Inverse folding.
């Protein structure tokens, strides 16, 4: 038996300081995980249970590549985020065991067609058209946790054309990385290769063709993307 057509290539992320590739299984994203961003989006900053959505692995754009402005939107926003990459998984992972499953960390952009997401929110419909479109997940190389440790503080920022637009700190995450892994593993069977985009600090806003985006997570890395 053979495939009826050639299966798609495995999506992967480079690993800093090696020729190794991290094969990506799923992309989970956390919504509204910084209080100041929840407020700017018109929500209560109190600790409500986290909620999740997904992007597709093949939405990834690697560090230094172009982000083609997508179809069907006139209000595409940047969301700079810390990514957690898992080397193992399971169900119902406890908070104190959660970090044992982490391979490493990266810097990502949760690019969002805000106008389409807004319409879906209003209608109570799913967010995919706003979140899971082509090239919607620009991503840096990963750094291994056994080299960097597990960051629980450190600056997160995004500049556009050299101008600061988003600024926060990992210590402002409402739901911390071990809690996110634990809760997510109660909803889905987590697996090696899953990556989790942990949410964005305040300051989200539109991008335009010609913009140079430069993201940074202290102790983790940099991400540069050109909007074309
Ligand atoms: Mn996001």
């Amino acid at each position: 038996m053979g495939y009826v057509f050639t299966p798609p290539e495995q999506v992967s992320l480079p690993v800093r300081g090696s020729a190794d590739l991290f094969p990506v299984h799923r992309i989970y994203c956390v919504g509204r995980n910084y209080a100041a961003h929840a407020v700017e989006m018109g929500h209560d900053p109190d600790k409500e249970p986290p909620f999740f959505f997904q992007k597709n692995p093949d939405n990834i754009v690697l560090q230094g590549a172009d982000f083609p402005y997508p179809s069907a939107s006139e209000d595409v926003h940047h969301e700079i985020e810390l990514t957690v990459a898992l080397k193992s998984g399971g169900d119902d992972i406890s908070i104190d065991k959660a970090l044992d499953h982490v391979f490493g960390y990266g810097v990502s952009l949760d690019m969002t067609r805000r106008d389409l997401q807004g319409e879906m929110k209003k209608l109570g419909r799913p967010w995919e058209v706003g979140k899971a479109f082509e090239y919607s997940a620009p991503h840096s190389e990963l750094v291994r946790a056994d080299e960097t440790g597990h960051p629980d503080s450190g600056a997160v920022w995004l500049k556009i054309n050299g101008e600061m637009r988003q600024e926060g700190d990992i210590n402002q995450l409402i739901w911390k990385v071990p809690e996110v892994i634990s809760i997510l593993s109660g909803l889905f069977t987590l697996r090696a290769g899953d990556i989790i985009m942990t949410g964005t600090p305040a300051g989200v806003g539109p991008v335009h063709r010609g913009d140079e985006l430069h993201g940074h997570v202290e102790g983790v890395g940099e991400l540069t993307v050109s909007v074309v």
